[in-house]
Amino acid sequence: MISKLLVIQSDGTAQAVADTLNNAASAPEKISLWDMAVNGGWIMLILALLLILAIYIFIERYITLSAALKGEADNVFMNNIRQYVHEGNIDAARSLSKQTQTPLGRMIDKGFSRLGRPLPDIQAAIENEGQLEVSNLERRVSLVSAVASLGPMLGFLGTVTGMVTAFQDMAHAGNNIDIQLLSTGIYQAMVTTVGGLIVGIIAYFLYYLLVTRINRVVFELEVRANEFMDLLHEPA
Question: Would you call 203 exposed, middle or buried from its count of C-beta atoms within 10 A (0-12, 13-18, 19+)?
Fold first, then answer.
């Protein structure tokens, strides 16, 4: 009796091991991100190009904005301008502003070019130059926002086209409907949705960083412009 139980137990163990091996062998192979992107169809190529465009614009604008944000250098610049103005050396102050090829330098130079006119005219000239500088800093940033919006929309387009493909295959198959036959369209639909959301999220995050950086530059320019106007209001 004991020997029979041992035989039954050993047979059960062997069967369990065999089932485990069969399940492991039949388990679906993991798919890499590259395979997912390739199988996603032509929309994934457009999404990849949009993502590259957004990253390129972000890097280029971030470098430009970082060059415009020179806190310590701007402090030294404004201190030198203040010293020249107090000494009555306007020519040296304006020469310094011309040599300083930054948004702040160009704004101050525009203010010096209006000396002799009423102070409101000088302030208006500085503000106009500041708006022009900010517009240059914001150049192409809207494209990153466009990518953030287009990414999910293109992903949804891929979802629709993938489902259309799936239902078209169902219609052509008739009564011979096979899951594998439908998998291509459904797979494309799901992959493009994921791809579109990923591109949209990354682009939106990059756009937010750029907007935050631009707002900081605008704030710094406003503070420096007010310092310059206060300097002109000071008695000679």
Answer: buried
Residue 230 burial (CB count, 10 A): 10
Backbone angles phi, psi at 115, to 5 degrees: -60, 140
Q: Cα 108 to chain center, whole Å?
A: 32
What's the rounded Cα separation, in Å, for the pair 130 and 218? 8
Buried b (16+ CB within 10 A) or exposed e, 178-190: eeeebeebbbbbb
106-129: per-residue pLDDT in tens?
A: 888 888 888 878 888 888 888 888
Amino acid found at 199: V
- Residue 236 CA to residue 233 CA, distance in Å, equals 9
Would you put residue 41 in left (φ > 0), alpha (ψ -120 to 50) or beta? left
Tell me how long the chain is.
236
Structure tokens at 20: 């485990």
Q: Taking the model in full, what pTM does it have?
A: 0.73
